[in-house]
Amino acid sequence: MAVAGLVEIKRKKVANKHGPGPGPLPITFLWIAFQYLFLGSADLFVLAGLMEFSFTQAPVKMRSLATSFSWASLAMGYYLSGVIVSFVNSVTGRGNGHHPWLSGENLNHFQLDKFYLLMFVLSVLNFCNYLFWANRYKYRLISGSD
């Protein structure tokens, strides 16, 4: 999310310098490709890690259930991201003259940089939560039969 925020700051600077014209901005799409590369890689590694954890730490008779929980947690994360967008729009749009961060007709009027910063802070808090629980977890020994 930090990369996405930096790319958005760069994009807004180019948009402000270029002015409100009907044509495309003179910035390459490769700037946004970096954040898609990071997010896609993160999804890949998270899913692989969840599958590995499900198959090595769950009892044999519960492995399919543990695998389904990993898919369900991924789906809930995607749903929660939509809820966060709606919540941010409702909170930032309150008051006289305030426009929601993620709403409007012109992308250059959005406050995506602030939203990405918020998502970065939430990601850091989530990582700290993960470290807290991961340090307390006791791994099971892998054996042939459970």
Structure commentary:
There is one protein chain. With 146 residues, the chain is an all-alpha fold. It is 68% helix and 0% strand. The chain contains 4 helices and no strands. It is elongated and about 65 Å long. The model has no long low-confidence stretch (mean pLDDT 86).
Question: Which helices and strands, and how do they pair?
Answer:
Elements (H helix, E strand, L loop, with lengths): L1 H17 L11 H28 L5 H30 L19 H25 L10
Helix pairs in contact: 1-4, 2-3
Please report the total strand number as a whole number.
0
Radius of gyration, CA atoms, in whole angstroms: 20 Å
Percent range for helical residues?
Answer: 55-70%
| Terminal residue distance | 41 Å
Any descriptors?
146 residues; elongated; 4 helices; single chain; mainly alpha
Concise structural overview:
The chain is mainly alpha-helical and 146 residues long. It contains four helices and no strands.
